[in-house]
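During the no-cost extension, the postdoctoral fellow (Dr. R.K.) reprocessed legacy sequence entries with the updated structure-token encoder. One reprocessed record is reproduced below for audit purposes.
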Amino acid sequence: MTIECRNLTKSFGRTRAVDGISFAADGHVVIIGPSGSGKTTLLRLIAGLEVPDAGSISFDGTPVSEPGWALHPQKRRISCVFQSPALWPHMTVSENIRFGMGDVPAGQARARMDDLMERAGIASLADRYPEARRASIVRALAHPARFILLDEPLQNLNEELKEEMFGLVLGCAEKNGTHLVYITHDMAEAEQIPGMVLSMNRGKLSGPDGGTGRM
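Re-encoded structure tokens follow.
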């Protein structure tokens, strides 16, 4: 499962949030950098939530984004955790997670959902209305995706929960053969994710070959 970006560019008014980024990764990708460096915009482009002004994105050699066009996120076989969890407030925790699993058969969905909720420590909250951060992570992990895109997913969790949820994310990715695109400010987190690390600043990638050189 490969993500490839070629000369990817996205501007908002006079601000070039993503500026000619190119990389190819056959595995996990970690994106680090200061606030305002363009990390979230890059993730939204990969998700299909933004359309590039220039350049392209392909998954496994198949184009998914070009100037003026982006394949709908639901057709990309991805799941996402953004800084704002974006759960449905009228649905319980379990209903939000089941909704995010799409057309997974009911029996399989229930077993997977129950297992993940137990491991995330939110099984007792199943019938309550959203406990947003952990529920959004479980919803993303429960979806049968080829890529999981995560934007500072452990923000606002205490250290114990961060450690538990980080282990859950890595464990599920390894078990399911899913690749992560993971944004973080925390170098300690970045160093624990095997794969490519990309360092962003002012919309560009820095370091050897656009990243830190670690694979």
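Residues 208-215 have pLDDT under 50 and may be disordered. The first helix runs from residue 39 to 47. The remaining legacy entries will be reprocessed before the final report is submitted.
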